[in-house]
Structure formats: C-alpha cells, structure tokens
Amino acid sequence: ARRPGERDRAVTRVDAREMTPAGDLEYTVKTLPASAEEIARCGTLRRRVHEWLASPDRTGKHDDDPELDEILDPSGDAWIRFLRARNSNVDKAFKMMSNHLAWRCDYRPWTITPAEIEHQNVTGKVRVGGLDSRDGRPVLVFDDSKENSKDHEMQLRSLVYHVCRVDRACRRNPNLGKYLLFIHLRDFKLSKAPGRKQSANTLSLLQDQFPERLGRAILYKPPTVFAAMLSMVKPFMTEVTRNKIIAVTGNVDPGGKNDEKMRGIAGDDWRTLTGATMPQSSPEISPGYDHVSAWAEVVREHAEEEERRRAWAESRDKGSRINHEFARSDSVSSMDVSDKAQHVVGKAGAKKKSKMAPEEPGSRRTSHDGSVDVFFDAKETIKPVKSKSWFGF
Asked: Helical H runs in 172-207?
C-alpha cells in the first residue's frame, strides 16, 4: 500500500509520463499538485520568507513591488516551484526565494518600458510568439543569429522584460505554470553567438529567478558547431532543465515525423508561433517576425499592466492595501503575528483573542488553498540573506 503523498511525489519526477488531455507531458505544461509532505514544507517556507520580509533589513524595501502579493499568494505556485527547484530542501528554497525577492527589489523589472527596449527588439531576436494551441503555454522565442546590439545591459533588460511577461501569463492561469522555449539555430554562427558570461546570465535568469517555469526547450535545427556551445552551458543547467530539451533536426515538412512531434508539443500552428519555415522580411529579421504588429501587441499588453499597477498603487495609497504581515493568508503560520495580533480590544475595552492569533504550538490549521500548516514549538532565528543580482554584479 502507498503511504500518504507517495503518488504525488511519484508524478513530480521528471520522467513522469502523465499526459494532458490533448498535449504534451503534464509536468511540462503545468505545476503538478503538491504532496502532503510538500504542503507542510511550503508552510514552513512561507513562514520563513515572511519573517525575512519583516526583518529590520528588509522592512519597507518591497512595498512598491506591484506583483509581490501575487507572487506570495499562498494559493499560487511560487512556493512549490521554489521548493521543488531545490529538491524539497526548505533551507535552500528559502535562500533561493529570498534571493529572488531581493533581485526584484534591486532590479525593479516592473519599471522596464517598451519604449526603453524597443531598439533591442526590431529584429525579433527575443519575443513572445503567443500561446500554443495544444495546452495554452506561452511561447518564448530566441534567435541569437539576429543580434543587433553590443549593449549587454540593455540586452539583459529586454530579456528580463519578456521573461516577466511569460511568468505573469503562467502565474495568472491556474491551468498552466510552464512555458515553451523555442530557439532558432538554423542560421547559428559562432561570430554572433553570445559569450559564455551572457549564456550563463540567461540560464541563471531562467533557472534561479523563475525556477520550474520552463516546460520545454526546443532547439530548432542546431548545426554541428552548436554542440560546442551547448557543452559550455551544460554545467550551468540542472538535470531537470537538461531533460526538457528537445532537438529538431532534418526535414520538417507537413506530415513528417518532426512536424508531428512539434504538433504534439505546440499544436497545429507551431510554425506561426515560432516563425519556423516562415518567410523573412529581410535577412536581418528573424523568420516570421513582423515588428509593427508584434510591438503593437507588446504596447497594448503593457498599457493593461500599467492600469493594473495604477489601481494597485491607488489602493495602497488609500490605505486599503492590508499590511503584508496579515494579508497573505488566513493561515497564520505563513506570517509572524505573535507580537502584533494576539488580542483586539472590544467595545467595552476588554481584550479578547484575535482571529489572527496563532494556534497552540504543534497544532494544525488549514489555509484557504487547502494546505496544512504546522506550528512549531520554537521559533527559528532567521538571518536576512544578503543576495547578489542574478547577473553576478
């Protein structure tokens, strides 16, 4: 007989074979449900992260992050993604997540605008192609052969902007959680290939800042010389990432083996989404990319996101945004409220126990997302993590 949670742990392995109803392997499409053991560890991770945010070194530094509440939502998938990215080690997951939040605080990705990075995008070297018609995953397209800039800092800002777009799409669709990465390599040349540091920076961004988001990485028609480049970056990849990589070589005519493989992964419109086999407006432009229409969609999406942020800021400024120490969950193990909400004062002036007060040590309480949080007998002492930015500066 299986022990509780045993099946759930089994389906989270990277060699799982569960399929979505009409598409790719399930673990490459969405974040799989947590086991009972993972749920308990997520509760511990939430508590530690909120204690860290409330520490003297961090208090107030994250208040202007418009997506912080989404990221730390106990019903969201950030907790289980960071936990799984560190093989369920809570200490390592805590360090990874606190580093990510510190990176957001320092880099402030929400301040990047389309006007700032448009010149980096006229060739279509990095773009979001749309949603695949099989499972609805966002499709992120890379084409380094169309590099048009030597400004590494702006290259990174453009990359961060598009990866954040993909991350939001995954985060806000509970049926997803993963994206599809398509890398054009047909015109790959060493002279235009990113350097080792740039490649490591890109991998660090995808793995360390947005862990467990990648569903599939498609290497489209890689030349022999690309094997040397791949060997350079493989040491920076996790085993999970390596197992998600698929190479498409040879004939991709309709009805062929490769065509069927891609239809099974991205749907019938995989060529339109990725630009594969599509015409080029000029040799400097990535196949299938039309900057005017593509950038109009980026600007429209950005305007919608800015409106969302304005509404959030107005709500915060009016005082209706609840303090983050109380807003994350009705499960109090995800925050430290022992010194702040033990009691509330009634009309007669008598004190009574607050609904937000923690339970007795060792007791359990179920949060609104169905997880079970465990209260411990002694509070841990959490030292704030002094993190580096993801690009190593």
From this structure: 196-204
Is the four-CA dihedral 115, 121, 126, 128 of positive or negative sign?
positive
pLDDT score recorded for residue 349: 42
Closest C-alpha among 214, 202, 184 to residue 123: 184
| C-alpha dihedral sign at 231, 241, 206, 290 | positive
For 204-261, what is each residue's pLDDT tens digit? 888 899 999 999 999 999 887 777 777 777 787 777 777 788 889 889 999 999 999 9
Tokens of 256: 């062929």
Enumerate the β-bridge partners of residue 180: 139, 216
Residue 336 CB coordination number (10 Å):
20
Distances 105 to 68, 98, 99, 109 between C-alpha atoms, Å: 10, 10, 10, 9
Supply 381's token pair: 């002492």
What pLDDT was estimated at residue 383? 36
How, if at all, do strands 214-220 and 245-248 pair?
parallel
Tokens linked to 343:
């009691």
Q: How far is CA 148 from CA 14, 124, 195, 306, in A?
A: 37, 10, 15, 28
What is the three-class DSSP state of 351?
strand
List, for the chain, all residue ranges whose pLDDT scores fall below the cut of 70: 1-24, 190-193, 319-393
**The pLDDT value given to residue 24:** 65
Length of the chain: 393
What DSSP character marks residue 335?
S
Distance CA 171, CA 169 (A): 6
C-alpha span between 10 and 27 (Å, rounded): 11
Closest by Cα among 134, 127, 94 to 264: 134
